[in-house]
User: Fold these one by one.
Assistant:
Number 1:
Amino acid sequence: MLTITDNNALREQLIEWHQVGETVALVPTMGNLHKGHMSLCQLASANADRVVVSVFVNPTQFGEGEDFGAYPRTPEKDARQLSRAGIDILYAPKAEDIYPLGVENSTRVFVPVLSDALCGEHRTKHFEGVTSVVMRLLNIVSPNVAVFGEKDFQQFVILQRMAEELHLHTRILSAPTLRDDAGLAISSRNQYLTAAETLSAPLLYATLRDARDKLLDGESIAKVESAAIKTLTNTGFSADYFSVRRSSDLSVPKKVAGKLIILVAAELGKARLIDNLQFET
Ligand code: PAF
């Protein structure tokens, strides 16, 4: 595996692959890699000849008072895992290579409406930061496919919309959420949980499953959403939202029909956890 920090060196390698007709997949990450990221890498390998994994803790997607400084950074461990998985390039750019004019003066990419809903209501500018960095990474690497996790389902829908609307040539793929044995979605932020919180965290997914079953049994969306928020609050979570949406565009469904998704974001101690569950009637 090559570890590349320099954009010119990356470009040279990409040109070589391009000349022999090899396809490229990009897996954008913020590092601190876990099993979930490795499953994205597997999907990437299955869909292209070469895989580039970017590791960049993107400052523009963190709000004031969020965990940009504390976000876990484990570069050596990440490199070992990626090398073991047969990844071709670990691309670890410096902030000045991604934002040459500095973060404040940088050009932004924004997908309206979708970016303002759900997590966007609670983390203003978060998705603008995500689309602004992913657009740059896609332009730098020009991959045939890029892979994102379904745990961040809103992010995936926004990036798909961006790619479609801006006529990008990269196919945006998603990989299913990986869970631990108790059902908790694997995330870098799980390490902020205390031992006691780790025991109650799987309730998030249990609440999603319970809500899905009630919706399929004919209960109303409003009733199911408010009961779930009550359950989460009673067990120590502080819920930002618990919401039933259409999975295609995250719009609010009038009734329980078609392809739906239930999305939740809730704080438990220092960790802000998100999860979702897709289902079909
Ligand atoms: O999902 C993430 O880890 C980040 O939002 C991403 C897509 C790497 C952009 O910084």
Number 2:
Amino acid sequence: MNKIALIFTGGTIAMKVPSKQQGAVLGLSPREIVDTLHTLTEFDHLVPHSFADLPSPSMTPKHMVELKQVVDSYLERADFAGAVIVHGTDTLEETAFFLDVTAASPKPVVLTGAMKNASEIGYDGMTNLISSIRVVMEPHSVGKGVLVVMNYAINAACEVMKTHTLNLDTFKSLDFGPLGIIDDEDVIYFRSQTQRKDYRFKPQIRPNVYLIKCYAGLEGHLIDYLVNEGAEGLVLEALGRGNVPPDMMPAIRQACEKGLPVVIVSRSPGGRVLDTYGYPGGGKDLVRTGCVLGGSLSGPKARILLMIALGNHLNLEAIRQLY
Ligand code: ASP
């Protein structure tokens, strides 16, 4: 059992810049990447799989469902130790979280990518790939859920987010810190996850779940529009501790009265939401209205979880328990 599936979905890690005008576009094939790795004899047990050629802004939840099937087809095999998924960094945390929430196997699954493309000096693709393979090969990685490996750091899919548009050290678990590091050939874990739940959901989604970011002066029009368009669930990236502008409340109330799950998370990148405030639009008002508090999940992850919860036929009370 020592084979590792190397599943390519695209991203900057597989990009080059043919000309300044054209910008960074896909141009490095999985075969070229794997051939480079195979020159290092340590990595001769890789089995490449070309899933897609997508910049990650083109990744959709439907792709994630398909990707999950591909990943499982390898994990189910006794001769595979785990999988590395090569992904664009923009939506990497959403795919990683999707795979984590639906994970059924304890075998390690690592997502990685690159911040610099292959035409740039300091291309980080190979280092990240080698680190990821080392993490899959490390016995202590078993049972840790889906992991994200970039810039020598190991983070948990449920905790991590892309925090910087340019920096190589962009993937951070702001509240919790990394699970561990890759130092030369050593994979060193500092701690276990604090946030991960072993959901094991079926990879089924309901598509019409929307995310709205709140800001000073926002009213309820967007919510009204989405509800009229057939939204099945809403996630609101609320302000601070989990509060919204009071003029949103009539639309939120109507959505809740229609039985729609309305999940509240924060637009602040760290900390969880709580019903601390009692003013109109405050957390207490939202909870009284029937909204679900989404803990410390980011907006995009809370949306993925709600899509999966609805796809797994959870009712409102079960959704409340879930978050
Ligand atoms: N825009 C790129 C993508 O997500 C960024 C990257 O891969 O680093 O595909």
Number 3:
Amino acid sequence: MGKTRSKCTLNLQKRVVNPMATGKLELVFISTPGIGNLVPLFEFAHLLVDHDPRFSATILIVTMPQRPLVNTYVQSRAAAAASNIRLIHLPAVETPSPDQFQNSIAYISMLIEKHRPHVKHAITDLMAAAIESDSNHFPSRIAGLFIDMFTTSMIDVANELGIPCYLYFASPATFLGFMLHLPILDSKLNPTDLSGLDSDLVLPEFVNPVPPSVLPSSVLQKEGYAWFLHHARRYAETKGIIVNTFVELEPHSVNGVRSRQVPAVYPIGPALDLAGPAQWHPDQVHHRKVMTWLDDQPPSSVVFLCFGSMGSLSGPQVKEIAIGLERTGLHFLWALRGPPKTQLHLPSEYKDPNEVLPNGFLERTAGVGLVCGWVSQVSILAHKAIGGFVSHCGWNSILESLWHGVPIATWPVYAEQQMNAFQMVRELGLAVEITLDYRAGSDLVVADEVERGIKRLMDGDDEVRRKVKEMGKKSRMAMMENGSSYTSLGALIEALVGN
Ligand code: UDP
């Protein structure tokens, strides 16, 4: 890994700047320990240091023992890191038992907050090292601390140390708008949570009113709501908000966010790791087996099903998918994973998927389908055999799918995915609907609906396919020299240098 940089990075032309003329500028990053948070943060750090030789980056790592796959990713990045990117593992902290938390965001927010003294210590050391490195009368300095949507407690550290703090938002501008709206909504709510919300939300980031049924499960629950509100309130304290999106995809939403009283907004995406887990996942044999199988399938013939880094569905739901999929008669690749050990763990891998699939399913579909565990999703989306993607609508997955021009059928499972699905289908017409408001555990999409949705995805909607291909081209253009995201990254760099 590290040798194959993503295409979007390759497309960027470096600025011609003499680093000695200004001194080196250090950027510090801290992310929530999840694949969907860390990967885009690493890519963003790469974009900045690749764009301008004055920058170097330090990424502070919070470790969660429950997520060995995340730790594997971090280790691989550490091993392959370029000289201008370094990783610092923060010391472990004592936490109350995760069982005491209803909601994983509540636990993770608390875990991160406990790292505050370690983050302060690490940045203080970096500042001391920067001063010592002053050999040309142009001292190095820390030009910015980048936090993500759940690491807002580090705003305090930035304030204490006098460092400008920026929010890096790895979800769409629509969801950023929702977060920015939460404090306003909260002042009108009684009782103070969203469980009783029965009317649609009218937000400047959405063309349509947003039904409560597509709000994230976490904010509909007391503990989660309190934490989301807590983080959202702090966003306005930052000096700028960087969003992993591009204006051509979300023009209305980016304008909507900008119309609020918020810090400067920089859409710099899509920042993608186009090499993906194919470069770092320990099970390369499995990866090669999947890719070889795809090589044997006709172009655009395969529907790919994958429900995210944290996605696993109930036994009855898996059976309904299997029945619906089999009825379509289409070629398929299904990343099927089992329940996690706890809500903080990533889903487990089935030793034998027969334990959850209908009797004889694997034998009957052996000629047309492949059921597998964790896969390098972005490598699969890049394969010419893929014709459609049944996706949980995580934002990284949406950006990857658009980049490769593969249409999505929406099946949101957790986090802000219901809202993303709503945006893709109702706001942008860039996806086919299977469900927009699915709640894992309580809902069941029956086989008929699965069959209908997949057939529509693969055979039915040429207009969606055409629009997706066009948006894919726009996403690549946005990252090229003078593209919208390239320009926005340049504006951010000017601001960082001027701090
Ligand atoms: N991913 C993958 N293989 C899988 C599941 C997920 O490579 O089996 C990658 C996917 O390509 C994406 C990231 O994990 O880059 C998931 O991020 P996203 O924002 O889509 O959803 P999350 O998992 O954070 O909910």
Number 4:
Amino acid sequence: MYKLIIGITISLLFFSCFSPEKNVMVEQELTYCARQVKKSFPFLADSTKLPRNIKAESKNWDCTSIYDWTSGFWPGILWYVYEYTQDNAIRRQAERFTSALFPVANRRAEHHDLGFMVFCSLGNGYRLTQNALYRDILLRTADSLATLYNPTVGTICSWPGMRKKMQWPHNTIIDNMINLELLFWASKNGGGKHLYQIAERHAEVTMRNQFRDDYSTCHVVVYDTITGQRISQVTHQGYNNTSMWARGQAWAIYGFTMCYRETRNPAFLATAERAADIYLAKLPADYIPYWDFNAPDIPHAPRDASAAAIVASGLLELCQVTTRSKATRYKKAALKMLASLSSSYYQSREQNNAFLLHSTGHYPNQSEVDRSIIYADYYYIEALMRLKKLNGE
Ligand code: GLY
């Protein structure tokens, strides 16, 4: 009897520590995020150098230029921390790093990532402050992004530089879905109807061409600029042309959910759900994906915490717009993801100044493999804020 009680106690302890189903302590995790960002300020004197990743042996962020695709995530994180804490010292830091990004609006668009860069930063800043200067810069950047749109194909060209380098006449990557949010926002805020139409058409064409029959996505679609037709489905950051790259699938889930919010087109909702369903069906037990679902060395392949954070945030929106039975399933899954991400294995805590460990940026290039990466932190805090609002707190 005594042994039985000890056995049950040990099992309960084990599952309360390691089960991904344990509750997410939203306030506790948001307070943790606020604490972590404050640790970085002494190392970030130059506001034009923005945190991107942390080396395995380091505690502090390695920084990048304002023109890098990841530049908007740090200011975006600061806006979320300000929204949560209402701390004016954090707001001043958010404003400082946000204003460093203003020159992005003055450059000719060289890639599709303008939405990531300005909407996570200035978009959140405008949402919280209604600063007219932010609005102006967002509108100008939306116009700049729209110059990459090809009406024959019906999508924005993600990487114009790949026309020559890879002989891809017009390429669109699944990540591009996220940049559409800037266009939808701009069309509602004085930027003109054509921006909405570009975003909507981009999503429709992507829906037809980027998915396979099972609703996994390919990373890149190459299009013919004369006929507008798809030439091929290939990968750049995934394992191979037929694999399911975890973060690509995350962008699809998050992006089509956002497009449904903006358009109410039921096909976008169905696409988001199908993309989520195959992703959820193939997850490992802790709900954090390997960097690619078809990586040959699973279970030894690196994880991608960033994909988990993006999907958790996306599902917390998806669960608010779908049927009740699906909503329960999606919310439960999002909670499991956040619980895992908030565990001692995935949180950075004293190891470094990020929120999270174990993200993978570009495995085929062997860059940012099993690292703290800024966008994982951005979507983690966004998901926590979404959960807080969903819980009515
Ligand atoms: N948008 C680039 C990436 O997800 O790595």
